[in-house]
Amino acid sequence: MYLTRESEIAIGILTNFVHEAEEAHTTGKLAHRLGVTKDHAARVVAVLVKNGLLQSRRGRTGGVVLNVDPKSLSVGMILRATQPVLVRRPRTRNANPSGTTGIFHMLAEATSEYFIELADTCKIADVIPTKIGNAQCRSRRLVPPVPIPGRD
């Protein structure tokens, strides 16, 4: 399991909208901010528009704007748009659960489901660079972090 460059760019693009949800951004401006080509940014923007995360506006003041509530935008939503294979149900129904292959597939399925569950708890607004130390991405299954003396 890995995150693609497309997912990385999509997360970068959408972080631009956390504090500027109503402001339209051009693909060129987003590409420049992320240090990617305009064509690559345009392909990712098209995926995000197709999946309803962004809305495209035409005209002189056009560009793309956020189409969802910025406080509800999660990493899981982005991964569903950019890497549908990651969240698709694995094909383990016909696998022999007692064999090595079956066990591996069951483990991969459980890990993938857990990863997406965790990604759903990570809101982009909580993990933007200015708030990275206060990230609220926590799994209900994980033990809370041990407090470090002297840090809040």
Helix/strand order? HHHEEHHHH
Tally of alpha and pi helices: 7
> Any idea what the shape is?
globular
Number of beta-strand segments? 2
In angstroms, what is the radius of gyration? 18 Å
Largest sheet: 2 strands, antiparallel
% residues in beta strands: 5-15%
Strand order of the largest sheet: 1-2
Would you tell me the overall average pLDDT? 79
Provide the low-confidence segments as ranges: 131-135, 139-144
* N→C terminal distance: 34 Å
Helix coverage percent = 40-55%
Q: Which structural category fits the helices and strands?
A: mainly alpha
List key phrases describing it.
152 residues, mainly alpha, two-stranded antiparallel ribbon, 7 helices, 5% strand, globular
Describe the structure.
With 152 residues, the protein is mainly α. It has 7 helices and 2 strands; from the N terminus they run H-H-H-E-E-H-H-H-H. Strands 1-2 form a two-stranded antiparallel sheet. Helix 2 (27-34) packs across helix 3 and helix 4 (75-82) crosses helix 6 (100-121). The radius of gyration is 18 Å and the shape is globular. The relative contact order is 0.14. The model is unreliable at 131-135 and 139-144 (pLDDT under 50).
Briefly summarize what is shown.
It is built from seven helices and two strands; from the N terminus they run αααββαααα.
Please write out the topology.
Layout: H1 5-15, H2 27-34, H3 38-50, E1 54-57, E2 63-66, H4 75-82, H5 84-87, H6 100-121, H7 124-127
Antiparallel strand pairs: 1-2
